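Summary for the steering committee. The consortium agreed at its last meeting that each partner would contribute one worked example illustrating the joint modelling workflow. Our contribution is presented below. We chose a case with several input lines so that the handling of multiple components could be demonstrated. No manual editing was applied between input and output; the record is shown as generated.
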Amino acid sequence: MHDYLDDLEAKSIYIIREAYNRLHPMAMLWSIGKDSTALLWMVRKAFFGRVPFPVVLLDTGMELDEVYDFRDMLIKEWGLDCITHMCPPEEEMDKTLPPATRAAMRKTEGLKTLLTEQQYKGVVLGIRRDEQGLRAKERVFSPRSIDGEWDFKDQPPEFWDQYKTEFPEGAHLRIHPILHWTEVDIWRYIQRENIPCCDLYFARKDEESGKMMRYRSLGEKNITFPVESSASNIVEIIEELETTNTSERAGRSMDKETEDSFEKLRARGYM
Amino acid sequence: MSEKSKKTKISAPSHQQLRVVIVGHVDHGKSTLIGRLLYDTDSLPEGKYEELQEICKRRGTDALEWSFVLDAFQAERDQAVTIDTTQIWFSTQARDYVIIDAPGHREFLKNMISGAAAADAAILVVDATEGVQEQTRRHAYLLSLLGLQQIGVVINKMDMVGHDPEAFEKVSRDVSAYLKSININPFYIIPISAREGDGIAERGDKMEWYEGKTLVEALDSFEVAGSPVARPLRFPVQDVYRYGEKRIIVGRIETGILRKGDKVLFSPANEEAEVTSIEVWPQDEDKVEAHAGESIGLTLDERIFVERGHIGSHTKNPPMLSNVFRANIFWLSHNPLKIGDSYKVRYGTHEAMVTVQSIDKVIDTEDLGESEKAGEVGRNAVAEVTLRARDLLPVDPYLDNFRLGRLVLYEGYDIAGGGTINMDGYPDQRASAKPKSENIYTVNYLVDQQMRAERNGHYGGVFWFTGLSGAGKSTLAMAVEQALFDKGYHTYVLDGDNVRHGLNADLGFSPEDRTENIRRVGEVAALQADSGLIVVSAFISPYRADRDRARRAAPSHFHEIFVSADLATCEKRDPKGLYKKARAGKIAEFTGIDSPYEAPENPEMVVDTQNNEIDTCVEQIVKYIKVQMKYKKQAANQKGKKEKAIAV
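What follows is the complete predicted structure of the assembly.
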C-alpha cells in the first residue's frame, strides 16, 4: 500500500541530492537528535548507503552524556566522518541577551567559526516547519549573508522544486530537506525504518519527583528540560503525539524569554 | 498534561495530507481565518491561546488578534501585515491538513506564489465590506496560472455587514463573474465571520439563510491529487554517481512508471539504453518498478552519454525537441523583462539560456485587458512571451505534462519569474533529417559547380524569400525571374502553392507538416542551385529553425531575403482572401493570426514592400542577384587550367 511517508522521503532525498550537486564543499549539522538522525538516514538512502560529506556536531560541552554515547555508537556503526566542533564560551556572547537565549547563541557563533574554517558553501540542517512559527516561514534553500544573517523580510521565491542555488562569494546556503515533515511524521518514519535513536526520548521515572518524564526535544542540559510523559517506546510516543496539544519546544527555555527572542536568535544565524 | 485539555484528535488512517493555500487581498482576514480554524478544530498548541491573550493585552489591542498565531515575525505583528508565507498543520475528523498562509500585500507577491504553488486546493478570502479588490483579482488569476483547480471562496467579515444575505449575494456575484472570466469555477462560496467563528467549523445561528457547507465541510470535500502515473514517463536526470565500476543515474520520476527492462530514451542527446536495475537503499532485488514521485537510481546496459538535465522517457511519447517555445509567465523581478534579454530557464533539472524573442501579450489582471506588442513586462505582471534557446531543448507543453511543462526564469542568482510552457503553433523538431538508412555514401561528381558556371555564365544559388502571406513574395519572385530570364540567366521559381499540388501534396498546415514542407523545398532548391540554376523560392516559411535548415542544405550559396510588410498591410491587401477566412475562423493556424511568424534576425537582404513600389523592389533584388551570381572568370580560368593540365 502507498504510504504518505514515501512521498515525504522522496522529496527529502530529491533536496539532498540537489544540494550535493550544486554546492561544494558542503556539510551537515548533526545534533544527534531524532530529526537530524532521521535526516542522516535519508542521506544514506540518497547516496546508496554512503554519507559523502562530513557531519558536524556543534559542541558546547553541555550535551547530555547519553547524547555523546549515542553519537559514538552511530559514528562507528554507520562509518561517519564526524567533526566535533567546539563552540566559543558563553562569556563571549552578547551580554544584553536574556540568559537562555545567550546560552543558545553559542551554537550560532560556533557555526560561524566552523564556516570560516571550512568554507562550506552549503550546510544541511534538520529543522522542520511545524517546530516553531519562524521556522515555518523558512525556505528549503535559505541564503545567509557572510556573517550568517537571515534576511527574513526578503526571502527568495521558491516554487515547483526550483531553488536558488547560486549566490555571491562569501555567503552560504542552509538546506532544509525535512522542512515539510512534522514531529509525528518523523517518529512514524523512525518506527517504519527502524532507525536508532537516543534513549532520552523515552519516558522513565524521575528520581526526584517520582514522575514519568521524557525529552520531546534534545538540547543542551542547561537550557533543555524533560516533560511529563508516560510514553516509553516509539508506539507510545506516536500515540501521545496524535493526541497532545503541547508544543514540542515546551522544554526549551530560550524560545519564550521575550516575544521575539527566537526571532533574534534566528536572524543572527541560529539554526 | 491535564485531562481537560486532552482532545481526541482522529486523523485518517492513511495520514494523507491536503495542502490548502489561503489567498486574497491584504486585510481581508486570511491570517485571522487560519487562527480561527486552528482554534475551532482544537489544533492550537497548549498555551498558545493564553499566550495570544497575553501578547494582545501587552500591545493594548482589545480584541484577540488571531493573526498573531501565524504572523510570527516581530515586524509582521508590529505592522499587522503578513510578510512571508507560512505553513501550519491541523486535522479535521476526516484528515490531516497543511494550511499555507500567503501574504496579500502586493509587495510580497513572490511569497504568495511560493506558498500557492505548493497547494492542492485554495481558499480565496474576500471581505464582505470591500468586495473584490486588486489582489483578489491578481491572486485568483495566479491560481489559474499555477494550475490550481479546487478553489473555494469565503466571503469574510459577515458580522460587519449585519450578516445580511443581500450583501453576501452581491459580493458573490462579483467574485463569480471575475472567476468565470478567467475560467475558474469555484466549488463553493461560503459566508463566514472569521473573528466570530461563524461558518468555519460550526455554522452558528446568525446566518440561517445559508444552507451550504461550512468551511471545514468544504475542505473535507476536496481531493488530494494522485500521483501522475498515467502520464508518459518523464525522468529528469538529477546527477550521475560512480561507485567503482557502477554508474548510477539518479533522479525523481516526475510522471509515469519506469520498469526494469524498459528502453529509455534520453533527450536532447537522443540516445537510448535499457534499464538493467532500479537502485534503492537498503538494496532491494525485488524493486522492478518505480512510480511518479519516487526518487530513485537506475543503471543502464550501455554506457551512453547521460548527464544532469537530460530527460528520460520511453521511446514512444518522448518530449518534443524545440529551440523556441511560448510561455505564459508571471514576472517578479524589479527589473522588467525585455525583448532581446537573456535569462536562464529551468524546468525539472534541465537548464538553458534563452533569449526573449517577443512579448506577445501583457495581461492586466485588473480588467484582463491585453496589450499586444508591449516592449517589456514589469514587476508582478503577467504576460505571454516567446523564448528562444541556442540548442534544441526537450520540452513538454503544460497541458500535456504539468510537472515538466512549467518553468522558472533566473536573472543572475535569483528566480525572477515562472510560468507554463505552450507549444501552440510550434513544431516538434525531433524528426531529424538524418538518413534513415545507415548504408548511405556520398558519390563525387565529375562536373563541378565551377564548370557549370563557366558554361552558364553565372553561378547557381538559392534566393529564399520569406514573409507574411500577402507581403508580396510570389509577385516579386515572378517579376524577378522574368527580369533575369530576359537577360539570359537560367532561373526557376519554387512557389508555395505550386509545390503543394505535387511534391508536397501529402502535407497540411500543422506545425510538423509546415516544417516538412520547408525541408523538402529546401532540399529541392539546393539541388537545383547545385545544378547551376538561380532558384527563387517564395514561401512564408515562418520558423527560423526551418529556414536555418534550408540554409544548411545549400550552405555556400543561400541568400535569405526578408519581404517585409506589417500584418495590417498584408491583411488589407489579402490577395487570396485568406486573412478574411482566418479571421472568420474558417482557416486554423494561419500565420500572423493564430500561428507565429518569426522574422529573420540577420537576413542577407530586406525589401520593404510596404513603403516601396513593386518595381523598385524588383530592381533592388535583381541587382543583388546579379552581383552575387556573377561568374568570376579569372579565378575559374586559373583553376580550369590547372585541372586541364592534370587531365592532359
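The first strand of chain B starts at residue 17 and ends at 24. The two ends of chain B are 111 Å apart (CA to CA).
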